[in-house]
Amino acid sequence: MKYRIALVPGDGIGPEIVGAAVSVLKKTAAKYGHEFDFTEYPAGGCAIDLCGEPLPQSTIDGCLASDSVMLGAVGGPKWDSMPSALRPEKALLGLRKALGLYTNLRPAAIQPALADACVLRKDIAAKGFDLMIVRELTGGIYFGKRGRNEAGDAAYDTEAYSIAEIERVARRAFETARKRKGHLTSVDKANVLETSRLWRETVHRLGETEYPDVRLDDMYVDNAAMQIIRDPSFFDVIVTSNMFGDILSDEASQVTGSIGLLASASLGETSRGMYEPIHGSAPDIAGKDIANPIATVLSAAMMLRYSFDLAEEADYIEKTVNDVLSEGWRTADIKSPDDTTWLKGSEMKDKILEHL
Ligand code: IPM
Ligand code: MG
């Protein structure tokens, strides 16, 4: 089969890691007889430099015309003082909205081969965990009305959710739970926020009417933040709003101790998704060839699985990465302090290609 993949490498380490994922995709395509066509588009800081805006219309059009989008990361200190409409982050939010990607899947699991890297207390880490955060991605406070008063001495942002917005992401979460351990935790702040009360009501109604086989419970977000550290093995799938999901997914990924390994998928109504590593553009290490390409390579595997329905190919890439890690190969971010054989980013890419 032939697939058109839009590449949006972005800033910082983005181009290095997307380049690595492209090599892996090419080799996988050759092995399985597929054809992947890659076209690159600017977004983020590099687009500001190139075209004066973070998300040129041509990038949106190119992504819309593709079968899927692979994104590196956007942003960096160079553009931090830009006015809000011209910040690199606008590109990310704009792409999510333009492509209708209302569901963000962010898995965070402790890798047996990397149990040592886990930052949790040993007895907690020993229980292991494998959780999937399903974050709402195109609504809530990120996209609500915001502004300042005339005097400029007060500002506001608004959280708003409709039942339809809650239902569509909740369905995705219930279905995700069904394919895993069948346990869904809906995270909200229903003791304070009206949007959270609507969230909770809606998720429960869906649970009772459409997904009675999924075990559903609720948790306040502050408690969830605590439980992710105290007992992450409690969780299977978490569904939550845009901002809560942003915060909890960083927390969950960091407790694995290997944020450089964590992939994500953003999905909408069509099969076109956007795939990106969870980590950011890491401007401090850009160009030094030490960034770990694995999160992006695993994001490419998610693309094959969720957008192209190529489960066997996705399994193959994931297994290959596991093999490389099990053999003990490490990059700077996941090596132990006394490891002198760690690989540069490009060497890790080559190691994966060698095993494919
Ligand atoms: C993420 C990032 C973005 C977000 C930023 C860069 C706008 O933190 O993808 O989690 O908050 O969604
Ligand atoms: Mg974030």
* Secondary-structure content class: alpha/beta
What is the name of the CATH superfamily of the largest domain?
Answer: Isopropylmalate Dehydrogenase
Summarize the helix and strand pattern as letters: EHEHHEHEHEEEHEHEHEHEEHHH
Major beta-sheet overview: 10 strands, mixed
Strand content: 15-25%
Please identify, by name, the CATH architecture of the largest domain. Answer: 3-Layer(aba) Sandwich
How confident overall, as mean pLDDT?
A: 95
Radius of gyration (Å): 20 Å
Going across the major beta sheet, what is the strand order?
2-1-3-12-11-4-5-10-8-9
Topology-level CATH name of the largest domain: Isopropylmalate Dehydrogenase
- Count of distinct strands: 12
The total count of helices amounts to: 12
Task: Describe, in plain words, how this protein is organized in 3D.
With 356 residues, this protein is α/β, with parallel strands linked by helices. The strands form two sheets. It has a ten-stranded mixed β-sheet with strand order 2-1-3-12-11-4-5-10-8-9, sandwiched between helices. It has helices at residues 14-32, 45-51, 57-64, 89-98, 122-126, 163-178, 194-210, 221-230, 242-255, 294-306, 311-326, 345-355; strands at residues 2-10, 35-40, 68-73, 103-109, 130-136, 146-148, 155-157, 183-188, 215-220, 237-240, 263-267, 274-277. Strand 11 and strand 12 (274-277) form a beta hairpin.
